[in-house]
Design a protein that fits this description.
It is built from 15 helices and nine strands. It is α/β, with parallel strands linked by helices. It has a single domain, classed as TIM Barrel, CATH 3.20.20. Strands 1-2-3-4-5-6-8-9 form an eight-stranded parallel beta barrel, surrounded by five helices.
Length: 368
């Protein structure tokens, strides 16, 4: 019987042709998915593949839980470690949701990725009572208590999320409670606290709107580079940039040269890069299932075909694994009422064309 690698290589050209020819061939994808795992394809190139999900989904759906265990090398709790769920009242910490995900990851020989420590959303209501006198200490206590709880057991942490402003805001940093109460140094202070609590964890600055050839994304790339350069110059222990990668169909302008240049500039700073929240929102005119799946697959293929050529990219994490459980069902539902299909598996846990696009991109990536 051929090895997994031999089997995948034998079918890779045919599978690529399947996508190009607009033919779904679900049987071929199912055979490929049964013979190989995304985590193994990634590992052969020195990459990590993982996903984000929740305790509820894993605990209530054994079939889904087995799929996650089979396909993923890294597991991220979607929102379980966001501040509002961990410290519901000042000084009272509860990590049981994150602990459950960590135990699942350990049981299935997976890495554990923590998210998100400092973000202007998903904060407890009592944050509004903070003052300039106590805000910094409260923020640092939250980071220290959370990261210390998982010290030596977390592969990575998204330390600060979405801190840069939108184009036209008149400032580089987004107006957040901690910018107002602590000042712009809240970002550096957050990374120092996380590094002290767990020196071995990869510390990530995570950001969105970096992918496309749009004025907003161009501005965001420049602002993020400026932020990262400042952090590095001041010896702040940031280890990686997380690029959320919430992609969209519908012909959004995409410039591979600009994106490659941005990735190279991040790499030149000595930083790793993580594709941290990959999925695809359907914005195109397609209504037929095969056409929709092809559009999603092509978006994943053209994007990962560029970013995975940069050897500083060390991981690809999809935000979810299956259409059965995707935040986009509520956040970006289809106007025609059809179920969204943004991920490698459909709601029946069958591999989609997105699975093949992801597998092919990982397989074609240069070795790290």
């Amino acid at each position: 019987m051929p090895s997994r690698r031999e089997f995948f290589s034998a079918f890779s050209g045919l599978a690529a042709a399947v996508i190009t020819a607009n033919a779904p061939h679900p049987f071929l994808r199912s055979v490929l998915a049964a013979q190989t795992r995304l985590r193994d394809i990634a590992a052969e190139k020195g990459l990590i593949y993982g996903c984000a999900t929740t305790q509820d989904y894993l605990q209530s759906d054994p079939q889904f839980a087995q799929l996650v265990a089979d396909q993923c090398e890294l597991l991220v709790p979607e929102n379980a470690l966001n501040w509002k769920y961990v410290e519901t009242s000042p000084g009272k910490f509860d990590f049981h949701l994150g602990d459950w995900i960590l135990n699942f990851a350990n049981t299935h020989s997976m890495k554990f990725g923590g998210a998100t420590l400092v973000w202007n959303l998903a904060q407890p209501q009592w944050i509004s009572s903070l003052t300039q006198q106590n805000a910094k200490q409260v923020m640092l206590d939250r980071i220290t208590r959370t990261v210390s709880h998982y010290r030596g057991r977390a592969f990575s942490w998204a330390v600060v999320n979405e801190a840069t402003a939108f184009r036209g805001a008149g400032a580089d940093l987004k107006d957040t409670p901690f910018l107002r109460l602590v000042g712009p140094d809240y970002i550096a202070a957050s990374f120092h606290a996380a590094a002290e609590a767990d020196p071995a964890a990869l510390l990530i600055y995570n950001e969105n709107h970096l992918e496309y050839d749009l004025p907003e994304d161009e501005y965001r790339r420049a602002t993020v580079l400026k932020l990262l350069k400042g952090l590095i110059a001041n010896k702040v222990p940031v280890g990686a940039l997380g690029i959320q990668s919430h992609l969209r169909t519908g012909g959004v302008p995409f410039n591979s040269s600009k994106l490659r240049d941005f990735l190279a500039r991040v790499s030149d700073l000595g930083l790793k890069i993580v594709i941290s929240e990959l999925d695809v929102t359907e914005k195109g005119p397609e209504t037929k299932l095969a056409d929709r799946d092809q559009a999603v697959a092509q978006e994943i293929g053209r994007y990962l075909g560029v970013v995975l050529q940069e050897k500083a990219v060390i991981a690809v994490i999809t935000w979810g694994l299956t259409a059965r459980y995707s935040w986009l069902a509520n956040y970006a539902p289809r106007a025609d009422g059809q179920q969204v299909r943004p991920l490698p598996y459909d709601s029946d846990l069958h591999p989609t064309q997105a699975w093949q696009a992801l597998a092919s991109a990982l397989d074609r990536a240069p070795r790290r």
